[in-house]
Each structure stands twice: as C-alpha cells, then as structure tokens.
Design goal:
Length: 171
C-alpha cells in the first residue's frame, strides 16, 4: 500500500512540475534585472590609413568604433544603411506612402496604439486572474483578434476569389 501511495505522489509531483513552463509568450517581465540584449560589443580599434581623414572629435557625439546594429543588419541584407537616417521618403516608395496615407496620418499613432493595447490587456487580465493550470496569456488576451487561417481561406474561396497561397493543412 505504501509503494502504491508513493508512486501516486511521485506521479502527481512530476505532473505538476511539468506544468510550470510558461515559455516566451508570457506577457509579464519575469525579473527586474538588467537586459542582457542591451549590451553590445564594440568594434575593434584599427589604425586608419590616413590620420588627416579622421573626423573632428565631438564630445557626446558618435565614434567610428560605435556599434550600429540597425545599419549593420541593413548592410548584411543587401540594403543601403546610409538611408536609415533619412527622414524623407525615397522616390521609389512615394506612390506606396501616398496610397497608405490617403485618409490622413495621425501624428501620435505609436503612443495611441500602445495606450489602447495596455488598456485592452488590463481589461483582459481582470477576468482571468485565478487559474488552476498555466495558460498562454498572450493567446488568451488576443484570442478575439486573431485570424483563423483555414476559416479565412474557406471564406475567400466561397466568395469566388483566387487564393494562390493557402496555409498548410491541419495536423
């Protein structure tokens, strides 16, 4: 009898321990510690070919060895990093920007969306604070806003529209 009770307790303990993994989709910050992704290694110091070609030092300005991860990523993908600091729209994208902004462009779009999302998540969190088992808070909060790919494919096909690409079949 003791062996059976011990096996039951051991099985329950292992089962409960397996439920503890929350994964990367947990919306809450797990710690107050530093963000290790903010630490960037600096480029190695090199001796320039011509010392007279160096820029004049500016206190608080940029340095040749400063890391520019966005520019490095654009260059690695075959883009032109010098266009990153440009605020004007390139001529090739003029028609796209004009079409996208035909109804006007609000100035504070990012701040407005961040505020709306924070209040939405706060309202969604009120209804489900106590759970017996861990749940995916991200999927729970945005459940009503997610697109069901198979239902959308069937809806478009039923309306007579072409669907050249379709999501993979369910497994």
């Amino acid at each position: 009898m003791r062996i059976l009770m011990g096996l039951i307790i051991l099985t329950l303990a292992v089962g409960v321990a397996g439920c503890s993994k929350k994964g990367l989709r947990d919306l809450r910050n797990p710690s107050d510690g530093p963000d290790e992704f903010l630490i960037l290694p600096s480029k190695p110091l090199t001796m320039p070919v011509e010392l007279r070609a160096l820029p004049v030092p500016t206190p608080g300005g940029t340095n040749i060895t400063d890391v520019k991860p966005n520019a490095d990523a654009v260059a690695a993908l075959g883009g032109r990093p010098e266009l990153l600091d440009q605020t004007a729209v390139p001529a090739a994208d003029g028609a796209l920007v004009a079409s996208a902004s035909r109804y006007g462009v609000p100035v504070n779009t990012r701040a407005e969306l961040a505020e709306a999302d924070a209040s939405f998540r706060k309202r969604a969190a009120r209804s489900g604070r106590i759970r017996l088992f861990p749940v995916d808070r991200y999927a729970q909060a945005y459940r009503k806003q997610s697109i069901q790919p198979f239902d959308e494919t069937q809806r478009w096909r039923a309306s007579g529209r072409e669907t050249p690409t379709s999501p993979p079949t369910r497994r």
